[in-house]
């Protein structure tokens, strides 16, 4: 696939991406099958590095969070699925506990372009 098939999409000003904040967005270019619902994702800082994943638990293919912007477990160490409690490493998306252990979140490309944060589906 080419960059043309997966264009960069602006999701927020870089100044919005502060430690502990998770910013949700809808992907413009792809819908979730078979329902045709828009795919959603989230971006956050892992240390000082921006990370972005699809908001899609590999267990049942549903969104991870019930509360807007709430993705971390009680200890603030892992991304946690609110449905069955699967835990994911923030830096890699790898599931380390729960029904989808060994699977992983789908990472998105993320970059800062000027004063904006942009994402795109990985090729
Ligand atoms: S739907 Fe996420 S752990 Fe079951």
In short:
The protein has 123 residues and is mainly beta.
Written description of the protein model:
With 123 residues, the protein is an all-beta fold. The chain has a domain at 9-69 and 104-121: Rieske Iron-sulfur Protein, CATH 2.102.10. The protein contains no helices and 9 strands. It has strands spanning 9-13, 23-32, 37-46, 49-54, 79-80, 87-88, 95-97, 107-113, 116-121. The protein has a 6-stranded antiparallel beta sheet with strand order 1-9-8-4-3-2, with no helix packed on it. A 3-stranded antiparallel beta sheet has the order 5-6-7, with no helix packed on it. The protein starts with 8 loop residues before the first strand and ends with a strand.
